[in-house]
Fold this sequence. Notes:
By secondary structure, the chain is of the alpha/beta class.
Amino acid sequence: MRKSFSINLFTFQGVGFGINFLSMNITVKFFAVGREIVGSDALVLTLPDGATAESLLWYLKETYPQFQTLKSLLIAVNEDYAEPHSTLHETDDVAVIPPVSGG
């Protein structure tokens, strides 16, 4: 069962969040431990235009401190790993990739 929540990032100040009155809604998908941390497999976030993968990670780590304990945390945009400075767009398919174990 899919659950979604909407969060407005304009109340947060941090990396990539200057004064910007234009916004976009982005659905962010979570897997494995990420889903456990946020309590959902997807969140709909209201981001300022020009938000980056780095600013999304900052927000997640500030809002969900458990993310800070993970060894690595990556953002995928449109099924490719995103660089920290990659700008997010409303139509992007965004996913948070937690650390993977294997052997």
